[in-house]
Amino acid sequence: MLPFIIRRLLWMVVLLLVISFLTYIIFYTLPAADPAALRAGRQPTPELLASIKKSLGLDKPWYIQYLKYLQRLVFHFDFGYSYQNQVSVKSQIFDRLPATAALAVGAAIVWLLIGIPVGIISAIKRGTWMDRIAMGGALVAISAPVYWLGLVSLYLFSKDLGKIPLFEGQGAYPSSGNIFTKPGEVIPALIMPWFVLAASFAAIYARFLRGNLLETMSEDYIRTARSKGLRERTVVFKHGVRSAITPIVTILGLDLGILLGGAILTETVFNIPGVGRLAFDAIQKSDLPTVQGTVLMGAFFIIILNLVVDVVYAFLDPRVRY
Amino acid sequence: MALLEVTDLKVHFKTDDGIVKAVDGVSYTVESGQAMGIVGESGSGKSVSSLTVMGLTRFSSNAMISGSIRFDGRDLLAASDEDMRKLRGNDMAMIFQDPLSSLHPFYKIGDQLVEAIRAHRDVSKAQALDRTVEMLGLVGIPEPRRRVDSYPHEFSGGMRQRVMIAMALINDPKLLIADEPTTALDVTVQAQILDLIQRLQRELDTAIVMITHDLGVVAEVTDEIAVMYAGRVVEYAGKDTIFAAPEHPYTWGLLKSIPRLDSPRGEELVPIPGRPPSLIIKPSGCAFHPRCPYVREAHTKIDPQLAPAADAGNGGGHKHEVACLLPAQTRRALWAALRTGEVPEQVLEHVDVPETAVDKEAVGEVLAPAGTEVAEGVVAEGSAAEPAPEPATAPAGETEETPS
Amino acid sequence: MRRSVRWTLFVSVVTALAMFVAACGGSDNGGGGGGGSKTAAVQTKIAQGKKGGNLTYLAAGDVDYLDTGQTYYTFGYMVAYATNRMLYSFKPTDSIHPVPDLATGPPEISADNKTITVHIKPGIKYAPPVNRVVTTKDIKYAFERAFSKEVPSGYAGAYFSSIAGTPDKPNSGDVKPISGIETPDDTTIVFKLKTAEAPLVSQALVMPITTPVPEEYASKFDKSTPSKFDQYQSFTGPYMVKNDPTTGKVTGRVPGKSIEIVRNPNWDAKTDYRPAYLDSIKIEEGNDDLATASRRALNGQSTVCCDAGSPPAQVLKQALARQKNQVIFVASGGTRYIAFDTKVKPFDNINIRKAIIAASNRNALRLTRGGAILGDIATGWIPPGIPGFEEAGGLKQNTDLDYLANPNGDPAVSKKYMLAAKKDDPSLPIDANGKWSGGEKILTIATNADPGKKTAEVFQGQMQDLGFKLNFRIVPQDTLYTKFCGVPKQNVAICPNVGWFKDFADPQSMLDATFNGKNILQQGNVNWPQLNDPQINSAMKAASTTPVGTERNQAWAKIGHMIAEQAPAIPWIWDKTASVGSANVNQVVNGYDTAHDLNFTSIK
User: Fold this and answer.
1) CATH architecture, domain A95-316
2) B202 and B249 fall within a common domain
3) Are B97 and B71 within one domain?
4) Does A156 touch chain C (CB under 8 A)?
5) Which is the most buried residue in A155, A173, B156, B176, by most CB within 10 A?
């Protein structure tokens, strides 16, 4: 197992390098705003433009810029400074990461707590009204775009706008502090975002688990378990769900990896200062260092979580060996 | 009192295509310590009847069960789910065809065996483990103490089946049902497993029901044999009688299609023509008639019942029953000819099969043509309503019988 | 008396060289000059609320800079106006006549127009950690740093190079002393000029460049390129952005998230005209969704919105119906127009340009922004509130030209000009009905953000009716300016989403940068039509030195007409911005920078 993990980590480094290179290329070939001109305001004199370009390091050819960037990154773990406000990209990302992480992990807990029981019950009670309502509801939840769902929930339930004021609404997330330092402010602000973000995932997981469990329950070892005289509950959970749930681990890891790169839409609707927002704003303002930083961070999470999922899978399924 | 008494058992499944009459009036008995074989093609109902004995058919929501099953004096069909659960794996046990897929891939075999014990006995894990090791040793697994920590995929096929047998016998059941236990194994291993089963049967005095399509298997292990076709028992006799003096054309067909040491050299193997019938729309009259070389007009209208064969008592204390409309003498004459190596065409040349005479005892009700609902194309060759069209919810065992 | 003439000059030219307000199609900022304009432009009455309370400001974006030496967008200006004091500034009620802020009185100009002397009030202190009293040396340093490459100020060189001792190439070297700025004592500052431009320079003293910056505190930050002072800004106003009282690091600003503005403990109300009712202001950023943000302001408590434009039409309509008192309109002091590049075919032909202007339905275009409540149909480039508006003809300026007469478009006039174009140049693909029949697609760059996108799309429809086929590309606002429309080499034929808002309430600021041939730049160009008419150019040169007053207004009004005669663009709206706030807020907008004036806003 260890050589496997090491191989994968090395491969991760290669991937991140390739991604950083691609980001640079994309940035330079597609027409975005000129960051120097953005900082210079209207009617900039040519000297002013040149001066800003120089201070941002934009006067050098792109490959030189790339190499310098790489050098800073690899030797000093320095992601550079934002073109917009000269704040270090690393500090901005780490500052905003807790918000995204709290949002993603919290939503994951919610969707697992909802999706898994619903999936199991639907499978056990297949064909009954419970099953039909659950799967119908799931279809709605999957189809509803998260942005729309967020706005609707704001207009229905947020304390300052909603018809039935119950939860904190847009902008309730404090601008400093995170879930560990200010749980009393952060957690209420995240309740609606958690549920909004979790909705479509819970639905997908429920449907997936239902299908998986139904298939699993027709496996031979279930028949064996019953013929051993085990209680039906034991058969369903210890034998059935235990098998059916392993693919869930895989998709959970992937989904978390993607969300940790920034749940942009949810962060926007609820104005949560996470990495997704940071990336989005940076793209709009052609702030390459920040874009690069967030892209690399997102890629890192996806790759790492992929690895974690593969390793965990080996523990869950003894047939899998590396 | 017999250990297991099955009387007129019917198991029908409601499906979108119609009602599948998987088991359509089956009766047999098994005495304590005895070994019985049930032989038939896939779709004959052999697995379903045993699964029903175990109570596993109850898990299919579309099953309609009627008749009677008495085990150790208890009425199983009237028993509650909980009562059945207490019997399963305890007083009666079953092993299945594919031991790899029948064992849970994620749990060590030791854990699975311990689980089987602790479902019915209030013992500690350590005690259960000891018993597990003991059983594994008994079935011939080397180094059992070490191998309890292995996973199913770490064993060979034969070993896995031994594990299954150990698991089935671990609580000392009175009855062991083995559903095609050797079909998935290769021939040498097959022999070992059969030996094992026989040995255990003698040592533990367990009654055995061996389900198979392979006559060679039952020749080894069993005392009595029931031949099933289209959900019915068509012949029932002691083992020796079945091989020496069978009286049903289907049984003849089965015997003629396997090579035997005592058959003449150069004898052709004759497969039974046609395919097993649809269990939704069964053929009218005798269910075998579309494939029977000796069919007569009357056979398409009358549904034969099981009746004693004329030589009852010949099989060393076992009864001999057969469900065929042909008169007893005709049957014996036909067999006498067949066993010399003739094929049915040749036999028909010199044995006269009467047009209208029938074995009176075999006539039950004269049934109307057996077709109930007629669904489009249901009876056609190769259509979905054929043996494998067991409803999706039927216990998987039945659909696994691979037609040859 | 000389002094009073100078004072009048100073006062009426109104903040020459004042704050640049971003030229933009996207972000709207209301405001406007006063003067004798009929359209209400500034609040004349400020409601007085109670002292205290906390305001929440919902913003979409962030300030560009906190550094007063660099900030030039309205939003940054709003913050600067509350947290710092300049030599001269504007009360919200009067955007034409500045009042002395740090200064004790108007600037004293020498007879030869080469020296300006200003005295400042004593005893004005910085907020912690600087804590000490402001001296004129701090103002001198503020100028010196604005000429360095560490602090690339957008206007220092443009307006203050006449000061003796300033570098030849502004913003190319490190911070160096400027010999022409003298501080004989702590409350006196003297500007010595190389040329006799004192009147103009003295007017520029309203700009944030005159915010004092303590050298001993700031110089270490000004050593980095770019300067880090933005994160350590000092404060002299009634408010400050929360900072670390020992290091001065601005902790209250989290870029992209929020800005916390609190009271400056060292502010002395007796030295200031600002009432500073509020105790604190929390700016909440990231509110891109104007619909939700404006609703939150309207239905909530102590909240105002927005920096990024008027609320969406639906919300505004509802608000005007039910919460009229919570909506303020301010004239943005600018014109939006659809510019043709006169160097790109076929727009090098003046008749074709006139034809398109004649055909355009400007009412339909205005509807995309929300209709009549959000602005007047523009007929020229001198908007209401700017001196010269009345002289140009007010809302009817340039309507003597037949192609600008009808706001709904006039197909007959359009046809006339198309046929005239055909007559001049038979090679043009124009048919007998005056419709364009050419197949080549005309490059048009539009913005991807509504309502600009809608406007461009409606315009595209109007062009198609005339027979033109457009290569219609949609890009983000910033890209539109910095990579396409602002770069002549890109040969963008039509830019439908441009606009120009006042630099200062003077007609020159509306017309010079945008239509003077000498202001065509290869990058960051704002003379989008690339108009280069020698007659217009020389008229502008002459009018730039005309002293302030009716004569000046008339001169520029005439230039405005000359420009319209060249048909370089379709002016379509002089727009207003609506701001909304909660019922318990007395909203006050500063007519000069067209943003909320946090010093005068209060809670009821």
Assistant:
1) Orthogonal Bundle (1.10)
2) no
3) yes
4) no
5) A173
Choosing from B222, B243, B269, the residue where a domain stops is B222
Please give the interface size between A and B, counted as residue pairs whose CB atoms are below 8 Å apart: 77
Q: Which two tokens stand for residue B328?
A: 């007893």
Give the contacts of A26 (CB within 8 A, at least 6 positions apart). Answer: none
**Cα–Cα dist C484/C2, whole Å:** 48
> Which of B222, B240, B266 lies at the terminal end of a domain, its last residue?
B222
Same domain, B245 and B164: no
In sequence order, the 6+-apart residues with CB closer than 8 A to the CB of A70 are A17, A20
CB proximity C300 to A under 8 Å = yes
Tens of pLDDT, residue by residue over C192-225, are 999 877 877 887 788 889 999 999 999 999 998 7
Half-sphere exposure for C152 (CA within 13 Å, toward CB): 26
Domain spans in chain A, listed from the N-terminal domain onward: 2-76, 95-316
C-alpha angle C380-C386-C392 in degrees, rounded to nearest 5 = 45
Task: Supply the range of the domain harboring residue B314.
Answer: 225-401
- CA–CA dist C470, C436 (Å, integer): 12
Q: Which residue of B has its CA nearest to A230?
A: B119
Complex ipTM: 0.81
Question: Are B158 and B287 in the same domain?
Answer: no
Confidence of residue B377 (pLDDT cuts 50, 70, 90): very low
Q: Could you read off the pLDDT of C504-559 as tens digits, one per residue?
A: 667 887 888 899 998 888 877 889 999 999 999 999 888 877 766 788 889 999 99
Q: Is the pTM of this model over 0.80?
A: no
Q: pLDDT band for position C44 (50/70/90)?
A: low
Same domain, yes or no: B105 and B141 = yes
Would you call C230 and A85 a contact, using CB atoms and an 8 Å cutoff? yes
- pLDDT tens, B338-370? 877 778 888 888 887 877 777 777 776 555 454
A31 to chain C, minimum CA–CA distance in Å?
7
**How many CB atoms sit inside 10 A of residue A138's CB?**
24
Q: Taking the CB of residue A185, how many other CB atoms lie within 10 A of it?
A: 17
d(CA C62, CA C255): 7
B93 and B146 both lie in a single domain = yes
Looking at the structure, tell me whether residues B201 and B232 fall in a common domain.
no
Q: By a Cβ cutoff of 8 Å, what residues of chain B touch chain A?
A: 54, 56, 59, 81, 85-90, 93-94, 96, 98, 101-106, 115-116, 119-120, 151, 153, 164, 167, 392, 395-397
Between chain A and chain C, the number of residue pairs with CB atoms below 8 A apart is 149
| C-alpha closest to that of C19 among C85, C68, C84 | C68
**Higher confidence at residue C45 or residue A137?**
A137
| pLDDT tens readout for residues B260-317 | 777 677 777 778 888 888 888 888 888 888 888 888 888 888 888 888 877 655 556 6
Kindly report the number of other CB atoms within 10 A of residue C177's CB atom.
Answer: 10
Beta bridge partners of B38: B211, B226
- H helices of C430-579, in order, are 452-465, 477-479, 507-515, 534-544, 550-565
Instruction: Give the type of residue at C557.
Output: A
